[in-house]
């Protein structure tokens, strides 16, 4: 496996050299990653040179539209899908809400959907509200001790009435990576569509969405080193069935059908910088563009090992999710007595961490954790250094 060139990687993120952030160790990446330089440069250029209605005949206007198209085209390639399948929206939460409204009109009373108690509320709440329209909502429950979602347990929930199954690629508190392709295959065999929340997985390497077979795959650009946009990938077969949620004259364009508001031109254009960075990372390490995923994940697994060993050897914390670094994302959530005080104490030591329920109220309740108290979350990505992980482990010994 190619070893990640951590010095080169960190040189691509201005935050590591900026006076305001250089001395901080960032361990709340699950709440938002640093933006890479290509994204920042593209955003600056758009606001400086192209801040006008795109796609017009004037050169600056045409350049803005071309850059928006470039972002969609290049991200589609990295995701293993067609360009028309990639849509942008103001956030993943908003994209999911709009999608749920489309399903509200598409489904009939008596139809059923399946949701999980492992999800972030964005991929749970909008779907559960379909019960108001007479849709039966079935819950695929995780193991309360481990947080594991057993694919075999899903089978008992699937029958001819189930039209949609919504589940996370990776929970933002449990951290375990769910076998998306296997789950999607089970759902399709039962005649159900699938909606996969990839927000907590995509920052650790964009997946081959086409290979998973997912009908909808959602993630956030601001957690994948870009601007604050939600990205939704949808298979045409489903998109053509669902009722249009946009202006009537946009109904024939798949990537516009589920974006009722006008797009954020500058931020969409800047998303091409995500592709710039990932392709440059792949080139730096001598792999194909899609190989950036494996290089990033390998580096994260190596960093996860000492952190997981450190927290599992303690008897004063409870690790949510698996202790195996290969089977989880580097989102390490700990149930501790005083998470807010712990995060504050870490901040005093120059470490950015989070303390909250992180919109995973149902997941915490299912695992017997009080959402009002919350949990301590330590999350990183491939750009985190071994020295920062060592620093975190040492600080945890002092704080906990």
Automatic annotation (TrEMBL):
Matching InterPro entries: Aminotrans_V_dom, PyrdxlP-dep_Trfase, PyrdxlP-dep_Trfase_major, PyrdxlP-dep_Trfase_small
Keyword vocabulary terms for this entry: Pyridoxal phosphate
Organism: Roseivivax marinus
Domain of life, source organism: Bacteria
Keyword Nucleus: no
Pfam families: Aminotran_5
The keyword Disulfide bond belongs to this UniProt entry's keyword annotation: no
UniProt domain Aminotransferase class V: residue ranges: 27-392
PANTHER family, sorted: CYSTEINE DESULFURASE, PYRIDOXAL PHOSPHATE (PLP)-DEPENDENT ASPARTATE AMINOTRANSFERASE SUPERFAMILY
Name of the featured protein: Cysteine desulfurase
């Amino acid at each position: 496996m190619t070893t990640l060139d951590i010095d080169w990687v960190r040189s691509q993120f201005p935050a590591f050299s900026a006076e305001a952030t250089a001395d901080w160790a960032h361990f709340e990446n699950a709440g938002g990653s640093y933006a890479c330089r290509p994204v920042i440069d593209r955003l600056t250029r758009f606001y400086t040179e192209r801040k006008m209605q795109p796609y017009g005949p004037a050169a600056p206007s045409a350049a803005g539209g071309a850059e928006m198209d470039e972002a969609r085209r290049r991200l589609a390639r990295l995701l293993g899908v067609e360009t028309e399948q990639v849509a942008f929206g103001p956030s993943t939460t908003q994209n999911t809400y709009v999608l749920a409204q489309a399903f509200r009109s598409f489904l009939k009373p008596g139809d059923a959907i399946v949701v999980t108690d492992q999800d972030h509320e964005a991929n749970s709440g909008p779907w559960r509200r379909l019960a108001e329209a007479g849709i039966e909502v079935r819950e695929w429950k995780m193991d309360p001790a481990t947080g594991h979602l057993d694919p075999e347990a899903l089978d008992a929930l699937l029958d001819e009435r189930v039209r949609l199954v919504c589940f996370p690629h990776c929970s933002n508190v449990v951290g375990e990576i769910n076998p998306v392709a296997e789950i999607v295959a089970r759902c399709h065999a039962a005649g159900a569509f699938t909606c996969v929340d990839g927000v907590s997985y995509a920052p650790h390497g964009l997946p081959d969405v086409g290979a998973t077979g997912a009908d909808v795959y959602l993630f956030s650009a601001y957690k994948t080193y870009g601007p604050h946009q939600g990205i939704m990938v949808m298979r045409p077969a489903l998109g053509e069935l669902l009722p249009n949620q946009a202006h009537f004259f946009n109904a024939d364009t798949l990537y516009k059908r589920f974006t009722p508001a006008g797009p954020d031109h500058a931020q969409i254009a800047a998303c091409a910088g995500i592709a710039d960075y990932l392709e440059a990372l792949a080139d730096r390490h001598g792999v194909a563009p899609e190989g950036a995923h494996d290089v990033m994940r390998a580096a994260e697994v190596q960093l996860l090992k000492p952190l997981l060993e450190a927290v599992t050897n303690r008897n004063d914390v409870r690790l949510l999710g698996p202790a195996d670094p290969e089977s989880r994302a580097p989102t390490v959530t700990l149930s501790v007595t005083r998470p807010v005080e712990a995060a504050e104490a870490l901040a005093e030591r120059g470490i950015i961490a989070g303390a909250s329920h992180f919109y995973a109220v149902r997941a915490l309740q299912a695992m017997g954790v009080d959402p009002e108290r919350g949990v301590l979350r330590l999350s990183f990505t491939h750009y985190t250094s071994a020295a920062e992980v060592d620093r975190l482990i040492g600080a945890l010994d002092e704080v906990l």
